[in-house]
Amino acid sequence: MKLGNSFSGALRTFAYFMSSGTHYDLEGVPYLSAYGNEPSAIEQAYAIYANVIELDENGIVLNAKYAERRAAQYIRSYYDTAYKVEPPFEDWETELHDPPPLKDLSK
Questions:
Q1: SS3 per residue for the chain
Q2: Digit-coded pLDDT (tens) for 28-54
């Protein structure tokens, strides 16, 4: 099964906001410094995004902004220890899943 245009567009938009420093939920947070310096923080944010995003049976994204918000909450809390994530993250949201095999299965 191939992910469709809806997911591709949602992921592209999230990646743009995260890598350009323009994510509206992260105004004033110096998170761009994490790229290259603290990659595990960025990895965790993308993991949260991927764990939270939901698609319907046709592959249409149902909650792109909520998934973005949860990932942004993690980044904000990483830089601002006084920031309280509401609701608190559940274990499934922050789980880091195994990476894919070294060789693509489809090739």
A1: CCCCHHHHHHHHHHHHHHHHCCCHHHCCCCHHHHHHHCHHHHHHHHHHHHHHCCECCCCCECCHHHHHHHHHHHHHHHHCCCCCCCCCCCHHHHCCCCCCCCCCCCC
A2: 898 888 888 888 999 999 999 999 999
25-30 CB contacts, 8 Å cutoff, 24+ apart: 25/68, 25/69, 25/72, 25/73, 25/76, 26/72, 26/75, 26/76, 29/75, 29/76, 29/79, 29/80, 30/79
Model-wide pTM > 0.85: yes
Is 52:63 a contact under the CB 8 Å cutoff? yes
The two counts, helices (H) then strands (E), for the chain are 5, 0
